[in-house]
Amino acid sequence: MPRTYVLPLQVVQEFVLGVYDEEATAAFNQNLSDVSTLKDPHSKDASQRYHAHQYTNGTMCDLTNQPRETEVRFVCSEPRAMISSITELSTCKYALTIQSPMLCKHPLFQEERPVWHTINCKGLPENSKETKAEKYKAEGKQIIMVTDVE
To answer: Which residues belong to any copy of the MRH domain (predicted)?
Structure first.
C-alpha cells in the first residue's frame, strides 16, 4: 500500500490587499453618470467597460505607512470566470481584474447596436412652388452661407 506524506506549509509572509468597503464603493460609483460602467462609461465597446468594487484597510504598507487598497474590476468576458490581471497602480494600491460571463447578460455590458431609421424620399412634382433660394435669386437678393472654414 502506497504511503502519502503531507508536509506542513510554512507561511513566510502574508499581505491582505484590502477588505470590501461598501461605503467607498458607493462613493466611488456615485460620481459616475453610469453607475455600473467605468473606464470609459460612454464607450460603445462593451469590452472597455467594467464594474468596480473598492477594498480598503489592507496590510500596512512599509513604504507609505498607509493601509493597502485594491480596486476589483469586473469585466464581461466569455467563456469562464477568472482573474485576468493584478497590477500595482501606485505603491501598495492595486487593481485586480476579474472576467465574468455572468456580467455579459447585464444590459449595460452588451454591445450597443446602431439605431437605423428609414427615410423615404420622393421627388417634387414639376409644378411645385419655388424654393426660398429660388425666390431670393429671382428678387435679386444675395444668399450668404456662413461657415467656420475660411
So the answer is: 1-106
Digit-by-digit pLDDT tens for the chain (150 residues) are: 566 666 777 878 888 999 999 999 888 877 654 444 455 444 455 556 788 899 999 999 999 999 999 999 888 888 889 998 999 999 999 999 999 888 888 887 776 666 777 877 777 666 666 666 666 666 777 666 656 655
The 8-class DSSP code of residue 107 comes to G
* CATH 1.10.10 is right for the domain spanning 19-109: no
Q: Which helix (H) or strand (E) holds 76?
A: strand 69-76
Stated pTM of the model: 0.59
> Residue 76 and residue 69: Cα distance in Å, rounded?
23
Return the C-alpha cell found at 103: 456580467
Rounded distance between C-alpha atoms, residue 95 and residue 28, angstroms: 14
Classify 119 as helix, strand or coil: coil
Indicate if the alpha-carbon torsion angle 22, 23, 26, 27 is positive or negative: negative
Q: What are the sequence ranges of the domains in the chain?
A: 19-109
Measured CA to CA, the distance from residue 1 to residue 128 in angstroms comes to: 102
